[in-house]
Amino acid sequence: MDDLDRWTPVSVLGTGAFGQVHLAWDRTDRRWVALKRFTGQDELGLLRFVIESRIRVDHPHLVRSLAFRLVDDDAVLVTELARGGSLRQLMTRHGALPAPWVAAVVGQVLDALATLHAHGVVHRDLKPANLLLRDAGAVPPHVLVADFGIATWRTVSLTGVGAAIGTPGYLAPEYLDAGTPSPKSDLFAVGVLAAELLAGQRLVHQSNSTPDIPADWSTQLPMPGGLAPKLAAVLRRMADPDPAARYPDCAEAAEALRHALPGAPGVVPGIDLLDGLPAGWTADGPADAPVDAPTAVPPPVSTADWTQPVTRRAVTGPPTPAPGLPTPPPGTPPPGTAPWPAPPVPLPPKKRRRAPWLAAAAVLAVLVGAGIIWAVTANHTTPGGPTPTGTGHPAAPQPAWTPEPLAQCALAERGAERTIEGRSARCQRTSATRQDWVAEPAGGFPVSNPSGPFPGEACGASPDTDYSPTGVPLTCVKRKWTARA
């Protein structure tokens, strides 16, 4: 079979500015995986996608990359599936989470970061949406740190000097002031998200709620009421505005956290991404498909997708890691494949991209895989807010979309999706001080950022770019968000 055809997308798990994540079935290894396909339109986005695929640090609490494919205008990253969903989804469902459970999960995150930092990687985008549960309702919980799309690796940087990227609300003050990430800026983010999980809502300094951040960070992170004093003290030190006052590293913070709140974490009912699969699928794979059945060619995933007969130029994975980065042992695929069930969920249609930036990405993949690292210091940045959500490949700036509010939602729910009055809806900003559940328009939500800025609002360093909540492409011009032409 075509190499890309070994993974069949079944449903969409999420979308962002540069990629769409699918629940997919691996026909070769006969297991469920998460498949992330690049859907961006610019060279920098692809380079970030390639770098994400090359970060291969082995730790039980880091999501494992299983394969990477760059074939013509398709870039695909395959990772292990975290069936329990994200901590953001869990908090949206349950609100405030119990302190022993949060302490156990945060301790695992700190352990993973200690290993990541030892390999020269700073994550830069730690938040509940990027922390996944391997299984639903497991005791003890098993968290996986995911999404290295804007991580820095050794001396690799795709951000302009003095520019900070990440999600407002979790960015350390010294990172915002100088634009230089460090392990201590990751530690700050963990302290913030831990307090958020305990409160069931965002608990951030107001000045860290938009990309326009003042330099004065004298106010400590607020804490939810009723916390054990030792636990509150540990979290406050992790998220202290002064980096010198924080723990020296994540390993020491993890040890302090375990001493502050020892004991069993208990159980938090979770979600299972394999519940409610489309017809023809079960948690074990294709329904009613004998393992020893002859191999069948799957139906095309769309009329213009991976199965097009084209001349291919490929960079494949798993990649050879740079020195010091261990490679996870490859799995042994079971013999035989099964006939395929009903047609899977179609991927967005591809668009032919320009050969020069595809070639650039291929070169970057080869050089990074060989351990040849360099710094890119051109003035490029990615959106300073949360990863924009949406589908499709806009070839030109989209017109403003007028949302239809259904009900008010909470700040912590921004970007979440649910059914309201029988209609699919998501929580997004509708004004400078309000967010609402808005109905999904015909054809789906456009590429947009539910927490993004509106035209005219203040921004940070130029030439930052973003999307408004209504799908208007924006760029930062003279510290004001301006619609892109």
UniProtKB/TrEMBL annotation:
Residues 318-348 have a biased composition (Pro residues). GO terms for molecular function: ATP binding; protein serine/threonine kinase activity. The chain crosses the membrane at residues 357-376. Keywords: ATP-binding, Kinase, Membrane, Nucleotide-binding, Serine/threonine-protein kinase, Transferase, Transmembrane, Transmembrane helix. Residues 284-295, 302-317, 383-395 have a biased composition (Low complexity). Coiled coil: none annotated. SMART domains: S_TKc. PROSITE patterns: PROTEIN_KINASE_ATP, PROTEIN_KINASE_DOM, PROTEIN_KINASE_ST. It comes from the Bacteria. Gene3D superfamilies: Transferase(Phosphotransferase) domain 1. It is an enzyme of class 2 (transferase). InterPro entries: Kinase-like_dom_sf (IPR011009), Prot_kinase_dom (IPR000719), Protein_kinase_ATP_BS (IPR017441), Ser/Thr_kinase_AS (IPR008271). Residues 284-348, 383-402 are annotated as: Disordered. Residues 7-262 form the Protein kinase domain. ATP binds at residue 36. The keyword Transcription does not apply. Its EC number is 2.7.11.1. PANTHER family: MITOGEN-ACTIVATED PROTEIN KINASE KINASE KINASE 20-RELATED (PTHR43289), SERINE_THREONINE-PROTEIN KINASE NEKL-3 (PTHR43289:SF6). This is non-specific serine/threonine protein kinase. It comes from Labedaea rhizosphaerae. The lineage of its organism: Bacteria, Bacillati, Actinomycetota, Actinomycetes, Pseudonocardiales.
